Amino acid sequence: MQGSANGGTSPKQLLQARHLRPRKRFGQNFLTDPHVAARIAAAIPPESYVFEIGGGTGALTAALIDRVASVTAIEIDRDLCILLAERFAAAGDRLRVVSGDVLTFDIEADLRAHTAPRAIAGNLPYYITTPILERILAAADLWETAILMVQREYARRLLAQPGSADYGSLSVFAALFARAEKLFEVGAGGFYPMPEVSSTVIRLTPMHSGRDRDPGFLLWLIRAAFAHRRKTFVNSLLAALRGAEHPTRKDLESALTCNGLDPNVRAERLALADFERVADTLEAQGLMERQWTTRSTR
Ligand code: SAM
Prior knowledge:
Blueprint: H1 11-16, E1 30-31, H2 34-42, E2 49-53, H3 59-67, E3 70-75, H4 78-87, E4 95-99, H5 107-112, E5 118-123, H6 129-138, E6 145-151, H7 152-159, H8 169-177, E7 178-186, E8 191-192, E9 199-206, H9 216-226, H10 233-241, H11 249-257, H12 272-284, H13 289-295
Parallel strand pairs: 2-3, 2-5, 3-4, 5-6
Antiparallel strand pairs: 1-8, 6-9, 7-9
Helix pairs in contact: 2-3, 9-10, 11-12
The structure holds S-adenosylmethionine (SAM).
């Protein structure tokens, strides 16, 4: 099913047969080791529908088609869309290749059109890891598992615990929507062309927190708290509030102390549950609503 009419399925052979070269601007570092692709696919339940981000020359697509019920592979590079469609013609309607940009494609509508179990998979283009994560986490009620290859340092930040050097807004943001786990690491030698960085495969499992309200304020609070790493939580928030009359320093300090937290604490020491409790306190006191919505940039 996965053979090339011109012989060979390595990314280099597949590209050369079509007189193509890897495009740096699209973050193209293609997986060369089929065992890595098979390990990623093996982490997804076999009966799943999978939305694959960045099909490329099809290393992961091949492993997914071999394992799961059906796959949609989105790819921004039109030449590679043709390559994918030709390479996997025998898969019939078990594979749909979408020529498009994952940052504008309606992922939610696509997932809604399929029944569970649904999964997201991808050896991500690293230059847009954060916007991709934001999009898929915003749709976390529509899939059950995501297996993603990300840059090793990025994985460290995602998986970091409070108090560690890598802990930051990304760690808290991810924890708000999903449980993140490291599956395995892949060295730079596993790709063509060889990247300058190493990679980690992670699994995300959505967390349904039971919160029925919009997480907008909590997200604002997390971003504001981490905006100045050297400032205390209170000083970072006061900076973000840019001179608003309320809440005062005292209001913010008491929102920390009434939740058993040090009024001089820095954001890097606070776990998601701490942010949630402080956000609840400030919201219950009605001190923040007007301030954050008028100062929020997103
Ligand atoms: N999955 C393939 C593999 O493992 O060999 C390719 C991985 S490569 C790191 C990332 C792929 O994402 C490339 O094929 C690239 O063209 C594609 N890509 C980059 N930006 C994209 C975007 N905005 N939307 C969809 N695909 C994109």
